[in-house]
Design a protein that fits this description.
CATH topology of the largest domain: Nucleotidyltransferase, domain 5
Structural class: alpha+beta
Number of helices: 14
Largest sheet: 6 strands, mixed
Number of strands: 27
CATH architecture of the largest domain: 2-Layer Sandwich
Radius of gyration: 26 Å
Helix content: 25-40%
Strand content: 25-35%
Shape: globular
CATH superfamily of the largest domain: ATPase, nucleotide binding domain
Bound molecules: adenosine monophosphate
């Protein structure tokens, strides 16, 4: 039975399988990148991928993107009659990828390895695992994205002794990992990151730059205009990866002055973001006890590393250029498939060993006694420090602080701050203890961090032997087993658009989007071509539909190119 490797991205998702080597699987449109976008049409049918992405502009209230940023929260998105949690939206993307693999392999798929940003916290990892389960998959392993990308690289460079830094800037997250390869062993030395920094933030800074230049107040813009301007900012950002400048206009509003964006202006607009990228790189180097000159290569992954400003930052920080033969969009899914191959104990991978680390510190809240004898709450006591090799297990003993104390509460946190209020609260352990003089009732707290980056906390009252496991599922960002089961049933009955109709419906959605974006003669042409194509579909004659589709596709491609260069 094939295990699939999934890169569940903020902007795009990909799927790959292992069959002696990692292989990407195309979606119904023949593409490897499936936009992580979900929508609902008028018949309450669920749309996923490019088809939904086209409707982001025409049906903004019935379409959603970037929900990976909400993973681990209980934010609800309403789409038509449906209401979804972030892991359910992700599950719909995973389901779509699963369906693509099943169509390609012509057999059912039940198991998966799913990648997550290295810096995803415990709650976000559990939500990702839940997304896989809600899509009807057993999630064999949750793997860190930079580690996966390094595996895709390492599979071809197993014999070399080398130290690499993976710089992973996706749509919504930024991760840095430093890895060493020797004797077929791949060891992650350190990981660091920023869960709220990605290509999307650069798009937003371009948009803000234009609004400031034109003195437009964003809150005065309607949803569609805002979307349209964001779309233009995205175009500008991507265009600057290939050209020197981009002329930004307010679509349909010639009264606004043109704004020319070039590399220098983009760098100055995004200076705070560029400065933020330095922080995890410096921390990872420090934690790995390495200097920038100790790195043999820099691997760039994630779509946003195509921005020239990333390459110039790398050149400034490391005095060398990054490797250029790794595909920034594909490496993570390919690496997840290598991990799937390892899980399936494929012989070709027998010599390949991987060790990973816990990217952040995990610990509990403690109380300190001040010199005056006063007790002060809110201190963080680290249990597993960041960049400890996983799996890891640590035990600490804590004692009662008052003779009247009959309960112990162990709040669990993740983060690096001395005070827990600045860290992320993961959950609480609460249990009774016998009364006794201060310091006489001890509780043993054990933290176990597994290879998937998932935490288990267990506490034992030494005098009674009472054991308690932390049920982090009570966290509002995490679904319990029962909830997953219930929602699995609900998702299973949703109507998902038929795979075989994807291409035709995608073209119609694209035609409708371009119609809304265009003006004048272009609109009339689009409307005529749409009617022709819809007419051909109504006839239900496959050869006629094929011909009409080719014609319509060509027409849309030319028109889109023309409109882009307007
Ligand atoms: P990922 O999450 O890895 O799919 O990366 C998506 C991010 O990459 C988005 O923010 C895109 O805007 C960005 N991106 C994709 N292509 C380019 C490009 N040519 N230039 C700049 N950014 C890009």
């Amino acid at each position: 039975m094939a295990i699939i490797g999934i890169d569940l991205g903020t902007t795009n998702s990909l799927v790959a399988v292992w069959d002696g080597e990692p292989r990407l699987i195309p979606n119904a449109l023949g593409e490897f990148l499936t936009p992580s976008v979900v929508g609902v049409d008028n018949n309450q049918e669920i749309l996923v991928g490019s088809l939904a992405q086209e409707r982001l502009y025409t049906h903004p209230d019935h379409t959603v993107a970037h929900f990976k940023r909400d993973m681990g929260t209980d934010r609800i998105t309403s789409l038509g009659k449906h209401r979804f949690r972030p892991e359910e939206l992700s599950a719909l993307v995973v389901k779509s990828l699963k369906r693509d693999v099943e169509a390609y392999l012509e057999k059912p798929v039940t198991e998966a390895v799913i990648s997550v940003p290295a810096y995803f916290n415990d709650t976000q990892r559990k939500a990702t695992r839940a997304a896989g389960e809600l899509a009807g998959l057993r999630v064999e392993r949750v793997i860190n994205e930079p580690t996966a990308a390094a595996m895709a690289y390492g599979i071809h460079h197993r014999e070399k002794e080398t130290t690499i830094l993976v710089f992973d800037l996706g749509g919504g997250t930024f991760d840095v990992s430093i890895l060493e390869f020797f004797d077929g062993i791949m060891e992650v030395r350190a990981s660091a990151g920023d869960n709220f920094l990605g290509g999307e933030d650069f798009t937003q800074s371009i948009l803000q730059g234009f609004l400031d230049f034109s003195q437009i107040d964003k809150s005065q813009l309607d949803h569609k205009t805002r979307n349209r301007l964001r779309h233009n900012a995205e175009w500008a950002k991507q265009a600057l990866s290939q050209q020197e400048s981009f002329v930004f206009q307010f679509p349909g509003k010639p009264e606004f002055q043109e704004w020319t964006l070039d590399h220098e202006l983009l760098e100055s607009l995004s200076k705070p973001l560029i400065d933020r990228m330095r922080v995890p790189v410096e921390r990872a180097l420090r934690d790995a006890s390495l200097g920038s000159h100790d790195l043999d290569s820099i691997l760039l992954i994630g779509g946003a590393t195509r921005m020239p400003l990333v390459k110039s930052l790398i050149a400034k920080m490391f005095g060398k250029l990054p490797l250029s033969h790794i595909h920034p969009d594909e490496a993570v899914a390919l690496g997840a498939a290598v991990q799937a191959g390892l899980k399936a104990r494929d012989e070709a991978l027998n010599e390949f060993v991987l060790t990973d680390v816990c990217p952040y510190t995990l610990g509990v809240e403690t109380i300190h006694m001040e010199d005056s004898g006063k007790l002060k709450e809110g201190y963080f006591c680290p249990m597993i420090e960041r960049n400890t090799v996983i799996p890891a297990s640590r035990v600490e003993q804590f004692a009662n602080i008052s003779r009247f104390q009959s309960r112990v509460e162990v709040p669990v946190y993740q983060g690096e701050s001395r005070m827990v209020k600045n860290n992320i609260h993961l959950g609480d352990l609460k249990f009774p203890i016998p009364r006794g003089r201060p310091g006489t009732q001890t509780v043993e707290v054990r933290f176990t961090y597994d290879i998937n980056g998932i935490l288990e906390v267990e506490a034992t009252v030494v005098s009674t032997g009472l054991k308690k496991r932390l049920v982090i599922e009570k966290n509002p960002g995490v679904l319990s087993k029962e909830e997953i089961e219930r929602r699995l049933q609900q998702l299973a009955v949703l109507k998902i658009h038929p795979r075989e109709e994807t291409e035709n419906r995608h073209l119609i959605a694209k035609g409708e989007r371009l119609y809304e974006e265009a003006l004048g003669k272009n609109r009339i042409d689009i409307s005529d071509e749409l009617s022709l194509f819809e007419g051909a579909l109504d006839k239900q004659d496959p050869s006629r539909i094929r011909k009409a589709r080719e014609r319509f596709k060509k027409f849309l491609a030319i028109l889109e190119e023309e409109m882009r260069s307007l």
